[in-house]
Each structure stands twice: as structure tokens, then as C-alpha cells.
């Protein structure tokens, strides 16, 4: 990708890659913690280092089904006497005897005195005599005690996002409860007299409020605690009260609409009176109007009213802010190179995130095509897409066959 530029064909607009570090400077990670049960920890952020209190594995065990024996007892293929069995949870209780072997299952303890396991397929049973093909070396097919980690080893660090594997690791070392960063609290609402609830009748000039549902879905995928305050009319006192209610308990307040040029100025007016606000005009399409500031102790993010603009600015700007609030490292987008299958029209001046469909052709080459019309009000362009086609700030019309940068949607948008 090309280097961000401070100036472009649209005076006063800042490249989003330059704006993001400035936005992140205004956000402080949460420090409040809470204790949760292991079963409730998925998607939470660990607030403490965790060390194992046990060796892992806690005992020598078999890596497969077969027979355990002492390597020195079997210099060549021969028969050993079956002494008993060792199953997971039901270890062999007898004693080692020279020339003896033990039937053993995967994960079962290797009895004292035995040091090697041969897989069942390389053995033959004839009553209590087991003919075994010798392993190549002592210790074959045995998982040694502490092989993965020793007691006292730090297993997970504070700041780790807990996924399915991390839950399994904690269960393996016996962690039943843990301290995590409390969930980020988000309050959001839409503004606009033209917005109507889904399911109601539309009068002339009215539309359904789709943005709140998109934002709700994005926030749910982001692992935060959210409160939907509904649609607020274009009325100064109603907007003022909504901001006060939202900021009283939330870490972040998100609005949709009211920050574009030409819209009612009530949102900007109330923000100036009730908080500290910085309006960022970004060289990004869709999503040029974006606002960031503070209302009381809460961070404020004002998303554009156009549905696609709202989703794009959330993904590129708000999601990184949420990562910092949770104490997580900044997400690194996966960027791929693909061949454009049809021409794209573009005016230089803004970074464009066109919605695309990424696929692999018969030759195994990645190729991408736009989903169709790319208007910022066409939410179906997001529903049909599986990636963004990123067209750089000073890039113009782009012909078919051009190699372009694509960013596959991650778990927040999928």
C-alpha cells in the first residue's frame, strides 16, 4: 500500500492511517477487573498472568494404543509376557517384571519400570505372549511428564484475548476461575426525524432505522456490553438528555447520523455544550464525516448516517478504539493481492473501501470483483461482500486486470 498523504484533492481531509493514531491517543485502557468462571471466559481479556501449578502432562503417558515395555528387554523382535493393562483413569497396579509388557491405551499412565510403547499394529498377541517389533529408541511413543511445560511456568499473559484454545489450556492446568478486564460498556442511538422503527408504517420521506441493527451486530461481535437507546428526534433537549443518559454509565457513546455537513446542527451544538469534541474529516470513502471526543468520562464516536459509511467507519476506526479500551493489541488486517476482474471508477482524493467478492479462479489465482453499485446508502453491498477492495488516496480509475489490495472481512463483519 502506498504511503499516506496529508494533502489530497479534498482540502482539509486526513488520511485514515494518519488519523487513527491521533484517535487512539484519546482512549485509555480500562483497568477495572472482575472474576468469572472458566465457562464464562470466552471472548474476555485476561487481567492477570497465569502459571501452571502442575507439570503438563502430569505423568508419563502413552501417545497411542499398544504395549508398554522396557526398551532394554527387547533388543530384537521377540515375545514378552502380558502382565496386565493400563487404561486412561485406570492405571496398571502391578509391578514391572523383566521380560514383561503391559497393554496400554492412548493417554494412559506408563507404569513404573517401563519406558517405551510400541503401537498395536506392530505387535501380535498369542494368549499371554505378545510378539513386539522393537521401537527405534527408548522413550518412543511416550509423552513424558512435564514435556509440554513444568509447574510454575507462565502459560497465559495478562492482555490475552481468551478463545477456545485458551479455555482448554486453563482447564488443563486446573484453573476454574480467573480475573478478566470488565466488559466495555457502550450506549448507542440514532438521530433523525426521518427514521422509523422496523415494523411500523412509513410516511412520505421516512425510512427504517437500519443502522442501529448493524451497530448492534458489530458490537455483539466485538465482545462488549451494549445498550440501545433507540431513535432520538431532532430536538436539542431530547439529544442533550440522550447524551447525558448514555454517558452516565457507558465507556463509549456511539451515535449514527447528525455529523454530516448539511444535517441539523443540534448534535454538534449539544456536543460542544456538554463535552469536548473533535470532528475529523477523513479522506475515506465511504465515511468522510466522523466525530470523536468525550462526553463526561465517556468516549464519543459519531458515525455517519449512511448505512455503509456507518459500518466502514466502525470497522476501520471504532473497532481499534475498542481494542485499546480492552487492553488488546491493535488488530493487524490481513491484506492480500488479487486481480481485478472488471474496471472500477474512482476519483483521486480519498482512500476507498469498495465492497468486493474475493475468490480463486481455476488457475488458483486470487481475483476480486465489486458487489455492484457502491453507493454509501446501499447496505446490500456489504451483505454480498466478503472483503474490501482498498483503492489508495491518489488512485484514479482502475482497469480490469490490475493487481489490487484486498482485506478479507474478519469475525466482526462476517
UniProtKB/TrEMBL annotation:
GO terms for cellular component: cytosol. PROSITE patterns: MOCF_BIOSYNTHESIS_2. Keywords: Magnesium, Metal-binding, Molybdenum, Molybdenum cofactor biosynthesis, Transferase. SUPFAM superfamilies: MoeA C-terminal domain-like, MoeA N-terminal region -like, Molybdenum cofactor biosynthesis proteins. One of its GO terms (molecular function) is metal ion binding. Its cofactor is Mg(2+). Pathway: Cofactor biosynthesis; molybdopterin biosynthesis. SMART domains: MoCF_biosynth (SM00852). It catalyses: adenylyl-molybdopterin + molybdate = Mo-molybdopterin + AMP + H(+). Belongs to the MoeA family. This is Molybdopterin molybdenumtransferase.
